[in-house]
């Protein structure tokens, strides 16, 4: 047995690297944002299985990360991409506020450090 990579494994990695190199940065940013949104929705209990996966501590982290990504990339992605992501972020922030037994003060909720206070 050898630790060397077989040609077929190497080819697969080279193909992935080439594929990633061809993807525009905006597409990578939007994909990551959508993944964060989806994960946050699950952790907020907004899916069919709802309560089974609800975890507000995890949701807070995901929403906060999404807000940070949106803030950092605002000038890098067009409003065509940013507008629906901002709408989704606000919806998640409102859903978090509604799901919390003791809501955060305005401006203290997840991601509000980046977006400012979110009101229902």
Total DSSP helices? 5
**Oligomer designation:** single chain
Overall mean pLDDT score?
90
The amount of beta strand, in percent, is under 5%
- Percentage of residues in helical conformation: 55-70%
Uncertain residue segments: none
Task: Tell me the total number of β-strands.
Answer: 0
| Alpha-beta content class | mainly alpha
Largest sheet: none
Q: Write the element-wise H/E pattern from the N-terminal end onward.
A: HHHHH
Query: Nearest-angstrom radius of gyration?
Result: 18 Å
Q: Name the overall outline.
A: globular
**CA-CA gap between termini:** 62 Å
Descriptive keywords:
120 residues, mainly alpha, 5 helices, globular
Walk me through this protein's architecture.
The chain is an all-alpha fold. Helix content is 64%, strand content 0%. It contains five helices and no strands. It has helices at 7-21, 25-43, 56-73, 79-99, 112-115. The longest helix has 21 residues, at 79-99. The radius of gyration is 18 Å and the shape is globular. The termini are far apart. The model has no long low-confidence stretch (mean pLDDT 90).
